[in-house]
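# step 3/5: fold
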Amino acid sequence: MKKSVVCVLTGAAMVASMLGSTVCLADEAKTFTVGFDAEYPPYGYMDEDGEYTGFDLELAQAVCELQGWELVKTPIDWDSKDMELNSGSIDCIWNGFTMNGREDDYTWSVPYVDNSQVIVVSESAGIADLAGLAGKTVGVQAASAALELLSEGGDQADLAATFGTLQQFPDYNNAFVELQAGSIDAIAMDIGVAQYQLKEKEGYMILDESLNSEKYAIGFKLGNEELRDTVNESLMQLLEDGTFAELAEKYELTDMVCLGAESAEGETEAAEAETEALTEAAETEA
């Protein structure tokens, strides 16, 4: 009899354990872990209250609210972003992440910001254009789109060859400290981040000549199309209900956002093609 009781209790414990595991897995399924650069305003950064915020993080929060997920904000070392994503530590890379040139490396969301790489210099440096960077020390963030652009094989490798030095920094805050100290002559960076930085720093300017134009999207692990599709659907809902536009205005990115632009362009092209076909048919009948 005692053995039977023990067996029943053991069985109950096993069932409870299994149920506990099921609950745990269900809880995990409700989290959405976003990897981001914590020093990349206005997309992701720490505010005066010590809270992580930014355009991308607020957008991610809005997606989570639509889906009933819990947002987990995970600041990462940008150099280690691929390791974090492939290990499953994060569900996506969402923080001013350039898709151009990386199309085959990740499963991408729809693009949502049209961005450019630019050069920031001191107004007193006497540098008026890209040619003026010859012999100068130019700073750039490690593992950034600007670095890829200026490295060997990049579209601006020939320009970088004219620099005295291309110096890498872990983040742009450090680069600006060195620019203010005069240790470097210029910084190559995203225009959105440059505009944000220059709002708080006097005596600096963005050169009129940009290095290139690029688009930001959310990077998922290659093959994770199910999560990508869910997030895409949520982004389009946020576009339709005005949330996306409100956040873009809040972070002064209204002139840079492009969410929905490609689909709108596709609809326009389809309409033009249909009109052209109808016109040709009418001319044939005549």
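# step 4/5: annotate
Residues 32-112+217-267 form a domain with the D-Maltodextrin-Binding Protein; domain 2 fold (CATH 3.40.190.10).
# step 5/5: archive (pending)
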